[in-house]
Amino acid sequence: MSQERNGAATFKGNPITLVGPELKAGDQAPDFALNKSLVETVSLKDYAGKVKLISVVPSIDTGVCDAQTRRFNEEAGSLGDNVVVLTVSVDLPFAQSRWCGAAGIDKVVLLSDYKAHSFGESYGVYIKELGLNQRSIFVIDANDKIQYVEYLPEMTEHPNYEQAIQAVKSLV
């Protein structure tokens, strides 16, 4: 059974239960299986040798999640070819694709954790009560070591964009 972390975060002030470990800088990044489409899955190995900025959002169709993904899409263009920016949510790949087209998102790769929630549970962001993933940021180096982590204590707050981008730039 996966570890549960009660009271580690809130949603609109209400405590939520997170499932999985609390990862820290220096930890080896857990592998994952995320859907790029209904039939195509990707794993950490698909981004081997690249610096990875993983932006986790509860649902792409909410204001903060929309703004977070747009901000990282803007930043992605200046980070170079050795960096991949991934946005992970539990939204279906159809919804992610529709949203990207409407929002003009072309530099961030949206991936879905809707099937098994393996990413959420491996990275300690799966919210037991809501079936969503907690807003968080992970920066993983080319050797798959975590270099930066931000778990948002309140789901409706924005991450520290500047610190995340600086963490990426320090690795390239």
Give a structural overview.
It is a single chain. By secondary structure, the protein is an alpha+beta fold. Helix content is 23%, strand content 30%. The protein has 4 helices and 11 strands. It has helices at 63-76, 93-103, 118-122, 161-169, and strands at residues 4-11, 14-19, 34-35, 41-42, 51-56, 83-89, 108-112, 126-127, 132-133, 136-140, 146-151. It has a 5-stranded mixed β-sheet. It is globular, with a radius of gyration of 15 Å. The model has no long low-confidence stretch (mean pLDDT 93).
Key phrases:
single chain; 172 residues; alpha+beta; five-stranded mixed sheet; four-stranded antiparallel sheet; 30% strand
Note the topology.
Blueprint: E1 4-11, E2 14-19, E3 34-35, E4 41-42, E5 51-56, H1 63-76, E6 83-89, H2 93-103, E7 108-112, H3 118-122, E8 126-127, E9 132-133, E10 136-140, E11 146-151, H4 161-169
Parallel strand pairs: 5-6, 6-7
Antiparallel strand pairs: 1-2, 2-8, 3-4, 5-10, 8-9, 10-11
